[in-house]
Amino acid sequence: MSVTRAEKPKKTGRNPVDYAKAPINADLTKEQKLGFLADMLRIRRFEQASLKLYQQGKMGGFLHLYIGQESVAVGTLALMGDHDHAITAYRDHGHALVVGMSMNECMAELLGKATGCSKGKGGSMHFFAPDKNFWGGHGIVAGQTPLGLGIAYALKYKDLKGCCLTYIGDGAVNQGVYHESLNLASLWDIPVVYIIENNQYSMGTSLARSSAIKSCLAERAEGYKIDWDIVNGEDLYEVRAKTWDAIERAHEKCRPTVLEIDTYRYYGHSVADANAKKYRKPEEIEFYKQNHDPITLWENRLKEEGILDEAELKKVDEAAKKEAAAAVQFAEDSPFPEPEDIFSDIYYEVDMGTESGQTGRHFFND
Amino acid sequence: MPVITYRQALNDALAEELERDENVVVMGEEVAEYNGAYKITEGLWKRFGDKRVVDTPISEAGFIGLGVGAAMMGLRPVMELMFWSFAYVAYDQIINNAGCVRYMSGGLINCPLVIRGPANGGTNVGATHSHTPENFLANTPGLKVVSPATPYDAKGLMKAAIRDNDPVCVMENTLLYGDQGEVPEGEYIIPIGVADIKREGTDVSLIAHGRAVLTALAAAHRLHEEFNISAEVVDLRSIRPLDQETVLNSVRKTHRAVLVDENKPFCGVSAQIASMIQEHVFDDLDAPVQRVCSLDAPAIYSPPLEALQLPTADRIIQKVLAIS
Ligand SMILES: Cc1ncc(C[n+]2csc(CCOP(=O)(O)OP(=O)(O)O)c2C)c(N)n1
Ligand SMILES: [Mg+2]
Asked: Of A18, A143, A208, B109, which is most buried with the most CB atoms under 10 A?
């Protein structure tokens, strides 16, 4: 069905298969390739700016940084067509920016401002943009896995040729509801693509300490007769090629796929995670930064292809930094929601003032 | 007016809504080919086919979550729980996803989902199958909870629930499925959040929801016959939203309230009603508010004892006499 972990390309050196030649990549234009670079840099600069705000005490709660994993969101989500949808967990900033949410609305949400994408009601873990086919942003580990299934179910129900890219972590694969979802997806031929972002840790617990099968998480899909594959996440071409196979399987055969994309996060589980350097050695983090940084690797690739030089790189990066700085300004200048906003966006019928929203008491404050 | 069962009333509501709106899909364990564990969906699969009436595997978290996702996309799934007791394995999907997604998205997403099934004790199936979680559900702003006591209310509330654009939990009762009552032919809707005075009275208000309404009616009958006490029976019909005014007006009239509730007493629905009454009509009261709930222990199996654990007409009468 798929390659086994033993055949997996080693993380050092060049990928033995050149996925640049895969059909989905072969016709990419220079602009598109530079666009991927720009998107990865935008995620990184956005999050670095948000980290500063967090450290200045301007943000509440958790901040789960995606830095190090940018190639996954960019490689997969850029493949979305009109009827393709996406849903992820709480580490959602990267996905949000790639589907087209603005840095302004995202940064404002982090600061709990009324101009935020959820009007300051969701926070870092709960970004949504249904107009961009992006359904969140979910804080409960694996809680989004049946939602992605339901989104894909609705696509099939409406006879639309689409799929739902449903992201989960390497820790989330141990939740029961994920397995219920896999069984349903296969049983009912649902066009859902589960993408395990394997960054090797769930909070402070390494994969070796959480999974009975240590070598591979996607392989569990065998138990549900679902096609699966493992993906070297640092190679954007490979991420695109293998994700496209899965999307095509969903579109053409209405069958699910489980993809496990190897990646790595540089920061702690969340910024509040003081143990960030205890469950793994600083050298390990440094090793990944030096050898496996997805942005650096993509830059190198584009330089080799002769479509990127230092000047262009600087231009793209400066633009990302400027956009992030402007978003910080926008967020800081924005107002907080008003106390009465606490009671809107709970019931549709109440907000719309429909008859149903006006019968009976909906809120019980006194 | 035709007389039909509570079961038939629910079945008619589902059939009419399946017919009316192609986005309605009925889903759950045994709902299609088996015609429903309690035969609420009898004949629907045969009539509407595989796409509209769907048997699920035993995966409550998975299929309720699927329903939430599909509802976010504009379908109107009506999910059957064989028992509301089984909702506990799907609580994350119901509370965190159905209940909170509109709020957390700043109003960008709504969830026109119905979750329905029986939530009652009294059938000698032990604690795991006898839960009444309407209080837990109503504790989540974002969810609506209704609890029909009669065939007429069951049909009207079910249709309202399916057309509502927010998630609605419909709490049914296996002991009521065979009950008969008048249900008009043709279309009607009972708005969610409107209580109903099931019996007018002047001396005491018996306030209840679900099957407890029938227990209250039986008690009211005997109070009249045996003690010449005129009890008013207020059927909440909807827990959240709640028809506060109808409840308060009844108490303003009778000056006494006994709350009848198949929930357990601690933080049960009646606890909320009691708090509301003392807060808003304290000066109208001639006696402390009393409650008759399920006795505060897990549902006991032993049949004669379980009958005593649920609110009985005797217990209601004792409470009324104590404050009259
Ligand atoms: C049901 C549930 N249990 C525990 C948590 C706390 N928690 C949040 S994230 C997390 C680790 C998840 O790791 P993984 O799935 O690998 O995703 P990653 O954080 O690496 O992206 C835990 C334990 C939670 N949010 N939800
Ligand atoms: Mg992880």
From this structure: A143
